[in-house]
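User: Okay, second chain of the day. Same drill as before: sequence in, structure tokens out.
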Amino acid sequence: MSQPTPAPGSQHRTVALAAMAGTTIEWYDFFIYALSTGLVFSRVFFDGLGKDSLIISFATIGISFFFRPVGAALAGHLGDRLGRRAMLIATLLLMGVATTLIGLVPTQDAIGTAAPVILVLLRILQGLSAGGEWGGAALISVEHAPTDQRGKFGAYPQLGAPLGLLLANGVLALITALTTDDQFLAWGWRIPFLLSVVLVAAGFVIRRKVEESPVYQELKESGNHARTPLATLFKNHWPLVLAGALLFAANNAVGYMTTGGYVQAYSVNHLKMDPTTILICVMVAAVGWLASTMAGGRLSDRFGRLRVYRIGFVIQLAWLFPFFALLNTANTGLIVLALVLYSIGLGLTYGPQAALFSEMYPTAVRYSGAALSYAIGAVLGGAFAPMIAEALQSSTGTVYSVGVYLAAVTVVGLVVTFFLKERKGVSLSDAAADQQDDRAAVTA
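Assistant: Same drill. Structure tokens below.
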């Protein structure tokens, strides 16, 4: 059976833009926590731990990642059984509620140890949401897209990460510029979290207008749902789950140096830079990441997903040590240059991801497979990347030890690309995908 015809006219573009808007809000919520961790939480929730307060604070970022696979499994099961659209709305609302409540949590001085406990519980809810969010946004964009433009339209939900980073850094930069250090620690940091109410309301309205994927509609009409998508996935396609996870881990660990707040915290705490200045530097880099992500998606339609991934990983590997050298100068212009060039490899290994993951799995388990590859990759790559980086830098006395760690992870991702087969343009329809097995996607 041929690929179902995408919605007529500009419907596929509308769907992609709606997915992008939602992921932008989701990642704003997720990143605002990570950024605040390095700048605020070590002092207002983990005060008294001395030199370990920053490492412990970064550890709370990692804890939430272990709940991403749980969120991915739940959303994947429901998304494969009930549809992509419902999960897009549910995950958005869960993230918004958790983020808003973080902005209301009393500090450790006010309620003692209950404060960090509540903070971690709400971060776990963010992890559950993030685990299920990406799969739905990616699939509904790719499954609506024309066959020869899946990379392009699959890149739209990917843009939510750099846009969310841009928005999160922008709001924090504005707040830090308008408040004194004491005001920011006392109440200013809460404002970005409370703004989530407005953003989520807007995202909810946008996502309600998204139509269900035509590929999923075909599956629903055929009655070929997998009764237990997860069991089917791990029985027939576990090599794909592992390969996808390792591929994303190599991108995520490097990306989380900025999205996880490590670069910002290192610049403020070790290089003694002004918080507003480094936040603005990261905002500029986020624009570069956005451009390279869209370029990665578009280029993958022309040259193939895996070729673009390989080029991206090579660039990523080559720039790691020059990046840290320029960062150590504490010169604003050089740091902007370092971050922008750093974003090129990230974008090329992030833009094609939605299309690649969608083409890896049959329709009946596609949500579960894509979401779990993404979530497990996030655990392996990003969960404790900021904490590991901080621990390495503190124990060795040099930030270049962080570069060694990131280089090793990048090499793993590059190697994985040679064990996958290019599937650009493969039919996503249920009848064709039912014939797909791991031998078609993974080189023995």
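The chain is about 80% helix and 0% strand.

User: Thanks, on to the next one.
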